[in-house]
Known about the structure:
Blueprint: E1 5-7, H1 14-21, H2 25-31, E2 47-49, E3 60-67, E4 77-83, E5 86-92, E6 100-102, E7 109-114, E8 120-126, E9 132-139, E10 156-159, H3 160-170, H4 178-181, H5 196-201, H6 213-216, E11 220-224, E12 227-228, H7 251-261, H8 265-275, H9 307-314, H10 320-327, H11 333-338, H12 343-362, H13 373-396, H14 402-413, H15 417-425, H16 430-445, H17 464-470, H18 539-549, E13 553-554, E14 562-563, E15 566-569, E16 575-577, E17 582-589, E18 595-602, H19 608-617, E19 624-635, E20 642-643, E21 649-653, E22 670-676, E23 691-692
Parallel strand pairs: 3-9
Antiparallel strand pairs: 1-2, 3-6, 4-5, 4-7, 7-8, 10-11, 11-12, 13-14, 15-22, 16-21, 17-18, 17-20, 18-19, 19-21, 19-22, 22-23
Helix pairs in contact: 7-8, 7-12, 8-13, 12-13, 13-16, 13-17, 14-16, 15-16
Region (Disordered): 168-227, 284-303, 489-508
Domain LysM: 4-50
Pfam families: LysM
Amino acid sequence: MTKKTHIVKKGDTLWGIGQFYGVSVKQLADWNNIKGKKIHQLSIGQKIFLHLDESESYDTTLRIKLLDSAFKPINKATLQLEYDSKCENIAITKSITEDILIKDRHAGIKIYFLNIHKKFQLISHHTILPLGKKSLTLTSRMMKVSGSNLPEKGHQLEKLKDLSKVLEKENQQPTPPVQKEVESQLDGNKSTQTDKSKTSSKAPTKTNNQNSSVKDHNEVIRTDGGTPTHVVADFYNDENLKLHPNNEIYRQFIISAAKRHGFDAPTTAAIINAESAKIGSGSLKGRWKADSQNSTTSAGGMTQMLDGTWRDISKRSDSLLYKYKQKHPKLTDAKFLKLKYNPELSIDAGMVYAKMNLETLGKRLPINKITSKADLAKIAYLAHHDGPSGSERLIKNEYTSSSLMRKKLIIQIGEKDKFKKYMKEANQNGVKAYQTWIRDYIDSYINVKNFMHKISDNICINSLDAIIVILEGVSYKSKSNEKCIPAPAPAPAPAPAPAKSTTNVGGGNQWRNPLDTCQVRRFGYGSAPLTYKSNKYSKENLALATNEISRHGRTSKRHSKLHQGNDLEAALNSPVYAVCKGRIVFATSYSSYGNSIILQCNVDDLPVSKKNILRNKLDFKKDIVYFIYCHLNKIKVDKDELVEDISQPIGLSGNSGNAGSMTSISKGSHLHFEVRDEVSKSLGATGLKYRYDPFPLLDNCSTIENGVQ
């Protein structure tokens, strides 16, 4: 095969591409890292690799996602990428790139963005990339496509003090008393003499030297046409700190903790973000969880503090926790430990703990050589992850037991493909594999730039490997270690776009009935009795059985008053076939349906005649169609298996589920066959929702026998 890639055109499917070029779908999926539902979701313009040379392997599979400063996807953009000694332009149409396959991860990647002035501007430079799959999300004002970042004119909605109340109400955690009682002691201020009853009912009063822009900034928030407008103003830019909108409620805690402990706000946010569990769904998705609790240890709160560590921090006079205990000398231990779930105290404690680890390492390593707070954040997190002693041994390369570090790596990432890749790169040396992984992990996880609104061209954030060299440790890069370059080189001239394939291969274009013989079920109905192999059938009962009771739709002859599919006669253990090329998404027992298979197919993989029936006769709107096979005695395929040969059975018919008494055709044994446009919701749904009549798709399916009509 001389052709290396295929560019997807309208109507192309992975099965059609494989069929056209003589390559199996499984190989195409593996070579292009296409898994799960992505099998049926090719994009027009997507590059499909048609083979992978034995001599060719890739260190990193990278995807780049673009978000604007409001964390909204940038759906149309042009990027220029420099990697593997080449330069290429790629267009983004749905906020995320297709897979970028990188052979030499140690050479890194430079990413340029085509700005509104039609010039390529450097927005990201990674000197080294992690091994395996990497999703890189870029969020920056540099990537502004159009419009203004200033507040738009509109009618007045509310003042900032009202917005603060809304934010407080949205916070899942009730405002703890410490925020009110210790407020006057923040940053070492003296307590203000106030009546205790008044203090308990009033919102906390900010102290003069906190410089809170929330307090000083009293501009109004406006809307555009009645819809709230995202305002990018000073309120959202304190200390050049960019937070996810759902974490804005913690902004002042971050800024105060940063000032109190000698960090900057973005560095503090990066450390807290690395420590925190996140809310995974709903309107608060991405918010740091103040009530997080480890199920196996005492670690809890936003920064996952162990009970012992929490007690140690309370003994340090520079911590808010210490000040709170001083104010409440009779505090019980149980109530003291519950303070871990106070977000203000937890954030402050997280930064105190970072300081403690750096102080311990500073007695063993030349920490004073690190001048960047962003670099200090990486070392602080390394010390948190592996402990000060373990970090020192990693930096000085003092670990010698390959088996010990191999086990340690397995604990972190398991024994799947990623583990195997790290071990292969390290020539099966567990020490080298763990050293490489921890560098990749921290460089990926502690990225201060993600929490900055304005990123200066000369900002310098080193890789962990480069920081280790600064600390007189051992580099693990395969090439000579390079520290980051403050000023990026000018962007090169755009490279010509790669030539695109003009071949349109379409879909799999195959179909077969689910059974070798297609006969709508006739027997086993008490409301329409028919005798098996009779010389003559009742015309009325035959019509009732084959045209109503066994068919999709509503019927008064069933207890449920409807039927969700077609029942096709099948002797027990008859071979059952995939009707088209596709993917198995369900292969197990399914309630009253018994042993069941759900086959997922792309509509474009169907022959034109079947596609037209779906679209025109059945009014099927979606691009993915599901075929359901029920009451099977045996399932011969596994979930996620790709079906390429529809001549091979995927199961055997039977009488599982609520068809247990149907042991022969005369007693009603059958294959229940359905067509749906959705799976997850329809699994528990009743009625005809999500379901379509399969009968028009079946070829030569009989509803008569022995000439009786």
